[in-house]
Amino acid sequence: MRKSILALLLCLLPVVATAHDMSGMAMPHEPELGASAAFDAHGRLWVVDAADGHIRVRHSDDFGKTLSPPVIVNPVAERIYDEGENRPKIAFGPKGELYVSWSQPRAKPWTGYVRFSSSMDGGRHFSTPITVQHDLADITHRFDALAVDGHGRVVIACIDKRDQEAAKTKGQPYLGAAVYYSWSDNEGRSFAPDHKLMEHSCECCRIAITRTPSGKVAAFFRAIYGDNIRDHAYAVLRTDGQPAHAERATYSQWHIDGCPHQGPGLAIGANGVRHAVWYEAKDGPAIWYGQLDPGHPAKHKLKIGGPGAGHADVAVHGKTVWVAWNQVDAKGYALMLRRSADDGAHFDPPHAIARSTVAAGSPQLLTRQGRAYVAWDTAAGFRLVPAGTR
Amino acid sequence: MRRLLPALLFALALPALVLPALAHAASLTALSAGDVPALLKPPAHGERIVAIWALDCAYCEANMQALAKLQRAHPHEIELVTVATDDIAQQRTALAQRLHVAGMDAYPARAYAAATPERLDYLIDPDWGGETPRTLVIRADGTRTGISGALPPETLQKLP
After folding, report:
1. Cβ proximity of A340 and A346 under 8 Å
2. What pTM value is reported for the model?
3. How high is the ipTM of this complex?
4. Interface residue B129 vs chain A (CB under 8 A)
5. B15 touches chain A (CB under 8 A)
């Protein structure tokens, strides 16, 4: 009898697995390539990713060669967006606080909640996760972007479809989604009401977020202009009660009724120059570098890559600017780099700094003491690739 | 066991809920790098339209349905195949369900089975950056056209 029950259970296993898929639970599998990395104020590297429904944080004191055992952020497993451009994030407060955010898929397609947790003891323990956005409808609130401003406020922006849902209810057309943001004045214990930044954003492209020299937080994201022109907007995410205003910052005129799946990158120099990279495919796939002049086309525009080039990021330190991206061809992935020594006026020729024959995630450029490194999560493991000093 | 019981009951009930729906679904087959030459091989006559889509693309089902309508209007000239860029091993059920709801059961359906999905994107069409929907038209004379985004009616009319 016991055997037959076991046999019955074994027969049902695939169905249970299917049930899990259907009910939206992820099956245990190898971690996806949606990892984020950052150096803290002491130069320690931190890596956050997800495995089997848990956000995990690891650190490294040898430039990524060895990673610490993971510390689990959410003891109760939940669904986590951890692929492609929708990946967990990590940032630091002025007193060494560790902040982690991620997006949690809900049951229906394209839905999500933005989730947040913090550690006040250097990453040994994390707070019980909270949901950041106040609107708890089962709609899109995902593609979270996380930064800390000069006052230590935790700022989180995300893509939000509440306006699209409202329009749909009224039977009105609505292009794309919207970008909302919020902030916390109390180290992430609670967040201010949801603030609308801009209606008609792209639905599935990551938001680039960084700190300005004056300590504010700025965002650069793919928006929709006119009839599905998918150019980008730039905005300072104001936390002083004044409305934030997003201005168009790229003018590629790429029209697509679809999902580019490629968000931009942004790095702002101490001199205020806004270095940006973005993807468009008006005349074939292209990665561009440019210096944002919101309200006007970007300056010093340079085509960084064509077919096979994707998921670029940018970093700046002093007058040195780095651009990194994935270059794919029939053989696999190359991690490409271009460097400028004159604040983005000219760039060295592109060169490969790493290669992979297995899948590679979006590269992320980090700086530490004036040197740049690329965090590159591959199916063969996490890598921190020095960007060189050429 | 107490935790297993609801899952067991659900598992027992599930086939009754899902199997009738999937019984009519065209079987979803894997697409790996080795399958790309056959997918791109020009058809003997007319054209093959490859409708590339993704679970995370809110525009894709409507585009597939428009292409299916076009195919039904030109059954002898157009062969329609759908290709999902999501991993077949992880998303088979969700993909089949979405195709079924979209009324796409009659069409051959493929989904990525590649450890390196961006490489597969490149092999299918180097002039494509992975945005979806992507429509690839492969004609008997060997010419190809790739178009990103949901196709407006005026573009659809020009396809056959």
Report:
1. yes
2. 0.89
3. 0.86
4. yes
5. yes
